[in-house]
Amino acid sequence: xxxxxxxxxxxxxxxxxxxxxxxxxxxxxxxxxxxxxxxxxxxxxxxxxxxxxxxxxxxxxxxxxxxxxxxxxxxxxxxxxxxxxxxxxxxxxxxxxxxxxxxxxxxxxxxxxxxxxxxxxxxxxxxxxxxxxxxxxxxxxxxxxxxxxxxxxxxxxxxxxxxxxxxxxxxxxxxxxxxxxxxxxxxxxxxxxxxxxxxxxxxxxxxxxxxxxxxxxxxxxxxxxxxxxxxxxxxxxxxxxxxxxxxxxxxxxxxxxxxxxxxxxxxxxxxxxxxxxxxxxxxxxxxxxxxxxxxxxxxxxxxxxxxxxxxxxxxxxxxxxxxxxxxxxxxxxxxxxxxxxxxxxxxxxxxxxxxxxxxxxxxxxxxxxxxxxxxxxxxxxxxxxxxxxxxxxxxxxxxxxxxxxxxxxxxxxxxxxxxxxxxxxxxxxxxxxxxxxxxxxxxxxxxxxxxxxxxxxxxxxxxxxxxxxxxxxxxxxxxxxxxxxxxxxx
Length: 490
Known about the structure:
mainly alpha, globular, single chain
């Protein structure tokens, strides 16, 4: 049956309407994956020397022990954003004589065919088979290999289960990201040490290799939970059931905005019901961690905001960047229906502004925990927040009027190039470059806080002129709507 399933998917790909575009995207991704696998291979073979350079004065095996759990925490975060669920058009097979066990085994097996499952083997196995084998012996090496393979499987099936559950309960995914965020913060502030814990665990595995079976048991447990979940939900009625028709009053806080609130509520439902749009929310949560890579103590102490502004722009404005760059295209499947309805175009544009403002406000509030590091970061985030909801929202909606590529919302966003055009790349230039240009003269004159004030004032001014932007964007949309609709029909 596995062979038949693969043949069906092969035929589905070659008979698809956008075969040429899909083939080009797959070839491009194969080149990217091959490049990163070669990098991983080089990292694996030179791991010993790299560890000596990064951790001078520490034995390579001890350094290696300390980074393994770090790697798999980072691996899980990367999987959340980049690894897609294994897909198969299940519905046609449920009505014929094929056991559910076969379908589930195919889905679980396909989940293993991922770059994220191959990369750690290429990175860690060379070090295990050379340095660890020569220093600690064959049994300890076997313990390391079993543990690493078990952690790969654990992350793989935990990610698959979490994403499937998140389709029904987005709070579950948010809770997982917050948990990882808290662990990272505790380690950053030296409250706990993931490195010390990792080193201790693998020291024990080196002494008692049979302890590796604990991790194997964890992987099997998650596999079993994932399989049980599929068994419980793999029914035709589960695949085809519709939600009851709801109204905008599902989000009572939007009612106060009248028709604008209703339109925003409808779009919020669209976001929460489809894979690709939902990934914009997932990305908003994931990018909250971005500051840990950019907010260095020396940058904060020396008020070097230019070195930290890029992260602030992305964290507070990631939703309008990830979601807004395809604005109007999210509604491409029913865009003709929207245009045929009696919709006030000004309210249609206002609803987009409202959605951006709500999302930016929530994410900015979430990033306030960086104030533990320094009050300066709170100021930075608030200033960039004003910039994003003021000027950023305007520039995103301006470029949206020139995006005429249709989107398939049933497909995930990872490595999906459908809908990507020149406007997505051009959009980033003014959005990211302008706050740096405003800050530059103040930074060069050693007046960093005046630079932040200038950015904040610019954001407030553009925010206060929102009705002007609404009028201008409505005129532009009215002029472009027919060509946009024509592009969405292709």
